[in-house]
Each structure stands twice: as C-alpha cells, then as structure tokens.
Amino acid sequence: MPQTQFWARVRARAECPLRRGAWYRVVDLTPVEAYLDVNHRLLHIPRAFVQVLPLRPPLWSIVAGPRSGDGAGAPRVYGVCPSCCSRTPIGGKVRTLRCARCHGVFAVGWSDSPWRAFEVLAGRPTAGMLARARTTALRALATAFGLSG
C-alpha cells in the first residue's frame, strides 16, 4: 500500500522559522512535533505551529505581510505559489494568478477554511483515515474546478 504524503505550513499567528504560506513536505509526525523537509534539511517544528494536510493544495496561499512604511493602514497582501513557493504581491481580489517564476497558473485560495476539514490534528493518523481524507479532499478540489461529473 502506498504511503500518504503529508504537507505542512505555518499557522497564521505562529512564530517559527518557516516562510508563511509555503507548504513543506512532512517527513514524520508525532503528537508533539512535525519533522519537515525544508530545503533538503530536517527541521523539527512544534506540531501546534503547523497546519498538516494529506495533500498539497494547488492554490496560491494568501499571506498578510508587514504594514506599509509607518505601520499604519492595512497590511500588504501577497500570494505564495503552490508550485515553486515564489511570492507575488496581490493588489485585488483575483481568482487566478500566473507565477512569474514557474509560469504556472493557479487559483487563489482567499480562504483556507475548506481545507481545515482535512487537517491531521493529533497523533499519528491511520492509513484508512488518511486515504479517506485524501479522497474527500481531491473530490472537493475537482468540484471547485468544475472537473466532477
């Protein structure tokens, strides 16, 4: 039976040495830590600091960056490419975006709430649970892109 590959990204308010919005391959999960492949190096991150999914969402992650100049006003918003993790400023509410680095065109994930249903929250998930979550996530993704029949 093939092993399910997990992906993780830092939670919005967590302080850790990961780039916000970028997805990292999970090497191992324990109830306390996530072991991530970060630029071919193993990095141990407290499990509570990361969102873990049974697949890598093919959507731009939206990140609120630092506020402009004097700290007043709304934070700058940028997207993180789901393929190459390149950052791109986003000026408006666009549906899709082309990456200047890898040239891929992906939908913009303005909300990550649909993906929260597939989070691997605690312990070491069973193979059956992961397979069901992955199948459900892929079905939801196909429906979102109009690919289901």
Structure description:
The chain is of the alpha+beta class and 149 residues long. It has two domains: 95 residues, no CATH class; 54 residues, no CATH class. It contains two helices and ten strands. The strands form two sheets. Strands 4-3-2-1-5 form a five-stranded antiparallel sheet, with no helix packed on it. It has a five-stranded mixed sheet with strand order 8-7-6-10-9, with no helix packed on it. Strand 7 and strand 8 form a beta hairpin. It is globular. The two termini are 28 Å apart. The model has no long low-confidence stretch (mean pLDDT 82).
Summarize the entry for a quick read.
Helices cover 15% and strands 35% of the residues. The protein is an alpha+beta fold. It has two domains: 1-57 and 112-149, no CATH class; 58-111, no CATH class.
Poorly predicted residue ranges: none
Principal-axis shape: globular
Helix content bin: 10-25%
Instruction: Compute the CA-based radius of gyration.
Output: 16 Å
In quaternary terms, these chains amount to single chain
Q: How many beta-strand segments? A: 10
Widest β-sheet, arrangement of strands: 4-3-2-1-5
Q: How many angstroms separate the termini? A: 28 Å
In round numbers, the mean pLDDT is: 82
**Total discrete domains:** 2
The major beta sheet can be summarized as: 5 strands, antiparallel
Strand content: 25-35%
Topology as a string of helices (H) and strands (E):
EEEEEEEEEEHH
Keywords:
149 residues; 5-stranded mixed beta sheet; alpha+beta
Question: What layout of secondary structure does this protein have?
Answer:
Blueprint (H helix, E strand, L loop, with lengths): L6 E4 L13 E6 L3 E6 L2 E6 L3 E4 L5 E9 L7 E6 L6 E3 L6 E3 L6 E5 L3 H4 L10 H18 L5
Parallel strand pairs: 6-10
Antiparallel strand pairs: 1-2, 1-5, 2-3, 3-4, 6-7, 7-8, 9-10
